[in-house]
């Protein structure tokens, strides 16, 4: 009888003790809560910026709006290979819209107007894309059938921030339109003729340009004069990495 009553007494005594232990355990958990660290903000993307300055060294050849493009290791043209339609449109009519819209172009910019002989202009192109590893520049000599100049596939790793490099550029023939110099075929102010023509009637290969003949030198049907002739180099190009 005493043993049975003792068991009941001990059981009743244990219940408040267990509750006390449970409450104490809960309080211990709250005191040991560890705050989660705040994630560090993602770093701002690196900006790459290049200033391209072009000087027209010719006597009578305005240059079409300068095209500047950042891209991968592609080339806008290659000597001995056919010109793309985008390059053809620039070389025949000074229209750079399709060149700027080419699929592999990462970032681009264009001057607003023509660059007159003896003048200079600058264009800046900027990107945060690490795919922009190369740079190209292109322009048309507008008092010609399909002469253009520029530089393509320049590897940008050679330029540190605030570093500049200068080139003196020759003139190329797109090989898409015969150099007749005839009335109606020159888009520049010497003729105000037709620009791009879909039919290709020349060698269909990019090559060094042979130069303008002009009516003063015996090409009787030419609308050009000696003032429109050009010697190589015809353009001074300076590229500066600013960021």
From TrEMBL:
<dbReference type="InterPro" id="IPR038678">
    <property type="entry name" value="Spondin_N_sf"/>
</dbReference>
<feature type="signal peptide">
    <location>
        <begin position="1"/>
        <end position="25"/>
    </location>
</feature>
<protein>
    <recommendedName>
        <fullName>Spondin domain-containing protein</fullName>
    </recommendedName>
</protein>
<keyword id="KW-0732">Signal</keyword>
<dbReference type="Pfam" id="PF06468">
    <property type="entry name" value="Spond_N"/>
</dbReference>
<feature type="domain" description="Spondin">
    <location>
        <begin position="64"/>
        <end position="178"/>
    </location>
</feature>
<dbReference type="InterPro" id="IPR009465">
    <property type="entry name" value="Spondin_N"/>
</dbReference>
């Amino acid at each position: 009888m005493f043993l049975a009553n003792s068991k009941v007494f001990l059981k009743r005594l244990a219940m408040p003790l267990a509750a006390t232990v449970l409450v104490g355990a809960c309080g211990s958990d709250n005191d040991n809560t560890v705050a989660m660290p705040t994630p560090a903000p993602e770093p701002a993307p690196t900006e790459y910026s290049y200033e391209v300055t072009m000087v027209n060294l010719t006597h009578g050849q305005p240059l079409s709006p300068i095209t500047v493009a950042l891209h991968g290791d592609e080339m806008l043209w290659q000597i001995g290979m056919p010109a793309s339609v985008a390059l053809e449109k620039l070389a025949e009519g000074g229209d750079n819209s399709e060149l700027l819209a080419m699929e592999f172009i990462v970032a681009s910019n264009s001057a607003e107007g023509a660059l007159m002989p003896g003048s200079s202009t600058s264009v800046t192109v900027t990107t945060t894309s690490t795919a922009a590893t190369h740079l190209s520049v292109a322009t048309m000599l507008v008092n010609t059938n399909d002469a253009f100049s520029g530089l393509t596939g320049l590897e940008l790793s050679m330029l540190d921030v605030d570093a500049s490099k200068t080139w003196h550029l020759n003139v190329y023939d797109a090989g898409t339109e015969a150099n007749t110099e005839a009335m109606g075929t020159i888009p520049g102010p010497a003729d105000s003729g037709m620009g791009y023509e879909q039919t290709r009637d020349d060698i269909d290969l990019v090559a060094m340009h042979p130069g303008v003949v002009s009516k003063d030198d015996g090409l009787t049907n030419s609308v050009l004069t000696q003032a429109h002739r050009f010697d190589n180099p015809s353009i001074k190009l300076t590229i500066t990495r600013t960021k």
